Amino acid sequence: MALFLSRISSKLSACRVSKTARFFSSLPESPYLLLSSVKVGEPSESGKTVKHKLFDSRTERTMKSSEKTHPKEIDGEVLVGASQGWVVCVSKKDTSLHLTDVFKPWVSSPKVISLPALEFYPRLALKEVALSSSSPDEDDCVVATKFDRSYLSVCRPNCDSTWTHFETTFPLLQASDLMYSKRDEAFYFASDKGLYMGSLNLTNNKKIKYQQLSFCNLPMIPDSEWEMLETCFMTKHFVESPSGEFFFVKWYRGCLHKENIDKEVESVHIETRRFMVFREDEESRGLSYTEDIGDLCIFLSKGEAFCLSASMFPGLRPNSIYYIGAGIGCYHIGSGTVHTYNPRGTPKATIAPFWIHPTDPICSLLDSSISA
Q1: Residue 357, class by beta-carbon neighbours within 10 Å (0-12 exposed, 13-18 middle, 19+ buried)?
Q2: Which domain of life is it from (predicted)?
Q3: Got the DSSP string for 207-262?
């Protein structure tokens, strides 16, 4: 344990752009959703050739990627999480795991990085993944996963032959409430009821630490709405802005039904009812309810939550939450209005129900501005 922590205690890498990355002007350099993959032609020794169908959150349109080889190593594996633009896959036959960037539309020669096998069979319903860097092929990049309710598991893809498992005090919720903070160099997660926060700091801690979450204020809403929210399924998500602001988001989803003329329930579906956003005070570390996050927009799905500046990606809606789960939509935090999407050709169950972070395009823009 001590050896593991000492090896990852060095300064974690900042944003790096892969030299092999290739940018296509016709493809979205913004957060996108993978809708489907279509096989093109006959498979080769290295894998099958595919085209990806994508939904671009910036233009709100669907488009197709160029042809690329889908690596054989991940053929048939289950996609279980996404972080920093990378997707984690797990084998249906054993506990082998892989990281791949094949779903980034601007990558022409995708990579596959093998991760150590887990010491237990993963519960695929519990899938949380977070990376400390956008370059998992670097020695100082750490991958954290939640495949078991009782453990937070971490490893360095290119240095560790096994996972290091940290036992948690309380079970973790299955949603994407595992997040890496670049500001604090730590992984964060919430307790089941959202009353406590757990953290694993990679620079000076040898165990998980906990603190009680302190809410400074709550929204002024009618008692009837609070009663409605009590009936909803609520997930919790930590997210950090590019400048280091820390937010805590509560996502409420409830069941709605359709009745026939005889007042009999014909169908039931799940719908997003409300979001609550809390901003952390840097000095007190308290969480204060807000309806204004300015130019920022938050992306929530079954991958790691992330936050971007809307002005960096013209077309994105500021002060909004883009979500995947119980539909695809954009929730305006100030007004509470919802703009739903139904991309043409969307399958009933998307093969990768998470937003992919546009890590490489952002780094490219930043590097260009610095060079200028």
Answers
A1: buried
A2: Eukaryota
A3: S-EEEE--EEE-----HHHHHHHHTSEEEEEEEE-TT--EEEEEEEEEEEEEE-TT
Q: Is 327 helix (H, G, I), strand (E, B) or coil?
A: coil
Averaged pLDDT of the chain? 78
* pLDDT tens-digit series, residues 278-330: 999 888 889 999 999 999 999 998 889 999 999 989 999 999 999 987 778 99
Question: What is the DSSP track for 94-119?
Answer: SS-EEEE-TT-TT-SS--EEEEPPPS
Instruction: Judge if pTM exceeds 0.70.
Output: yes
Output b/e per residue, 188-223; b: 16+ Cβ within 10 A: bbbbeebeebbbbbbeeeeebeeeebeeeeeeeeee
Distance CA 154, CA 130 (A): 9
**Structural domains of the chain in order of their starting residue, each with its CATH number:** 2-8+31-371 (2.120.10)
181-188, long-range: CB < 8 A, 24+ apart: 181/238, 181/240, 181/246, 182/12, 182/132, 182/240, 182/244, 183/240, 183/244, 183/246, 185/12, 185/132, 187/130, 187/132, 187/144, 187/152, 187/154, 188/238
Q: What is the pLDDT of residues 328-366, one digit of tens each?
A: 899 999 999 999 887 665 555 555 678 888 865 444 343
Look at residue 306 in the predicted model and tell me its pLDDT: 94
- Does an H or E element contain 371, and which? helix 359-371
Coil, strand or helix at 298: strand
